[in-house]
What does this fold into?
Amino acid sequence: MTRQPHTNLLPACRRQRLALLVLLSLHAMVALTMVLSQVRPPQIDVAEAGIPELTKVSEFFASLVYWQYLPGWALLAGLSVVAWGHLRYAHSRGVSPDRRERVARRYRRALVVVLLSLPALKVQSVLDLVVWPGAHTLAFLVCLPTTVYALWLVHCMQRFRRVPVPLLLTALGWGAVVAAGFGLTMNEWWKSFSTLHFPLPDNILDATRLKDIGLPMISGFFEELGKGAGVAILFLLYRRHFHSVVSGIVIGAATGLGFNFVESVTYMAAFDGSSAGFHFWARQVAGLMAAHTAFTAITGAAFGIARQLHSRPQQITTIALGFCTAAGAHFCNNAMLDYVAKESHKWFTAGDTVNVLLLTPAQLLLFQGPLIVLYVLLLRRGLRSEAAGLRVSLTNLPDAARDAITEAEAAVLLSPARRFRLKADALRAAASLRHGIAAYLRLARLHAAQLELATEHWHRLRGEADPSARDEASSRARVQALKAVLAGNGP
It folds into this structure.
């Protein structure tokens, strides 16, 4: 009798294991900061300062930074032990491997949910919801239309094969929930760590300057690390959709938009919305496609470029350079904006209206403009590369694919304007609006399937085909089925 192999709690797919490792690395970073906070002796002698109660108060607030992580990790450990024991028991009882795999898959999902929920709990504190629920709700509703509009603009950056909308929304959600929570955790750690472990200046009221010195660097690095981890996980799990630098920019920008949305709501709702107008203008209007959107777009572009490289060292170097560029630009932006805000009143006097409408956009253009120019140039270059690659792919299609994409259809696929005009004509020619929308969507699905077939053939010609992508036969069959539906001969 052949012994059945044990079912592993970890996923069998290598990419899924690497994605889980990336997620665990964020928690390892939080654990490392906890250790640093505990092992480094305080350098502040509070008793000599005449404030003996400050020690207890500061230690209490410092512990609040991580309160949800410790029980969460205990839950993870307990759930892992239960899962391991359950799988061992099922194996000893002779349960079929398929059933054991289904059980293991449920445990994996539960563990991933816990790992994602821990940083998510930092996004909105209970105190904020209790004290300013109206301000948070109003800020959420005000920022939602501009964020949706920006996400639509990001989606429209793609002129040929497009990233699926669910994947785009996943990137947005990661930036808004996981990356924002991780960044807030790290920022709060630095604020408590710097004031507790650095010597106080002669004036105790200047203690806040200690955390302000390093906060731009800390926030720039860890916030980009949290967003970049999301892009890395999506790259590992859905690599077939990272077909060029364009898709990398789109996914990175969507992740940054999610982070910017939560940050805008937080700042607008602070102090019962006293400065909501300024933050809405700076973050949701003037800086909507800049700041976090631009920073993470550069990180995503690096993943898109790495997708088309064959050497593993080159891929790692490209991704590292993209992250360092984003984190360095984020740090410089934070530091310079803080400096200008503190020193500009010494240079000239300007009214509030001039400061908001002229000086704030000028500062954003000066400190964030180079990143915007960089990702726009990368996007332009990527679109040209896609157009050239698709032209080569459509010219060298195998004979079996000629029925799926004819020469006339190939010319339409290479022109976004002609594709849109064709869909608009179908919308206008329909007998009713409902039938017109249905015809428009059917044509859009057909074009998307044909572009996917052509793009995957382009990757095969370049020797960079992804194993998880559809094979050419199934892609052709999908196109033929959509053509049959469009012609009225299909279901």
Q: What stands out?
A: Residues 352-395 form the longest helix (44 residues). Residues 396-486 form one domain.
